[in-house]
Amino acid sequence: MRHTARFPDLDDASVFITGGGSGIGAALTDGFLEQGARVFFVQRRDGTAFADEMEDKHGRRPAFASCDITDTAALRDALAEAARLHGPVTVLVNNAANDARHAALEIDEAYWDRAMDINLKPYFFAAQAVAPGMKAAGGGAIVNFTSISYMMGQAGYVAYTTANSGINGMTRSLAREFGPDGIRVNALAPGWVLTDKQREMWATPEGLAAHLDRQCLKEHLSPEDMAGPVLFLASDASRMMTGQALVVDGGVVVTG
């Protein structure tokens, strides 16, 4: 059994997570609830069953809304509802993304625009929406999920890696702009996290073995491995850390 560090300042915090009902996002919701936070998450699918599971486990229920994050108005509405229920959002985790594979010569303009609408645009507009409330609350933390894929120059999903790189630029600029208001903005860059989706769609025995060979730590990453780093970035334990990209990949990009 893994033991998660305790971050007392996250107790009763108002937390908003995109894609918080499955994969990495589900592990994040679970982790914040364990800290005593009040969590609101969005996803396209119905989150009732997952919310029931979390309520049974923690004795408190995360709120959720079915939301397509490419619909900026709907995303803003969900953020406003979270603030109404739990108070101003002081922790925003931009987690939802789509790393669908695609060949560079086969994508058209509509595909490109859709990829940016999913993987980049919502990160900015969610951050924009929560900033006034965070300022009024005396500060807050924004954690943007990116990926090591753009650092490795990986082929096969150029729109996704382009968005990932853009997230890092956005993170640095927002850290500078929001910093005077006590708002910290950091990025988390995971390696290959074996969610159910990854196992079903892209993980092969050969691919898994090759990737593990590149890691310093010879254990595949799980969604739960992302919870601790996000809690750290959201908490006062990292209170003087902003504009950074924290890599959690088992030791791939730092070693080549």
Low-pLDDT windows of residues: none
Coarse shape: globular
Query: What is the helix tally?
Result: 9
* Alpha-beta classification: alpha/beta
**Range of helix content:** 40-55%
CATH superfamily: NAD(P)-binding Rossmann-like Domain
Distance between the termini: 31 Å
Please state the CA-atom Rg, rounded to the nearest Å: 17 Å
- Mean pLDDT comes to 94
Largest sheet: 7 strands, parallel
From the coordinates shown, what is the CATH architecture? 3-Layer(aba) Sandwich
Protein name: NAD(P)-dependent dehydrogenase, short-chain alcohol dehydrogenase family
InterPro entries: KR_dom, NAD(P)-bd_dom_sf, SDR_fam
Organism: Tranquillimonas alkanivorans
GO molecular function: oxidoreductase activity
Description:
The model has no long low-confidence stretch (mean pLDDT 94). The chain is globular. By secondary structure, the protein is an alpha/beta fold. It has helices at residues 23-34, 48-58, 72-86, 109-119, 121-137, 158-178, 196-201, 205-214, 224-234, and strands at residues 14-18, 38-43, 63-66, 91-94, 140-145, 183-190, 245-248. It has a single domain, classed as NAD(P)-binding Rossmann-like Domain (Rossmann fold). The protein contains nine helices and seven strands, in the order βαβαβαβααβαβαααβ. Helix 1 packs across helix 9 and helix 4 (109-119) crosses helix 6 (158-178). A seven-stranded parallel sheet has the order 3-2-1-4-5-6-7, with helices on both faces.
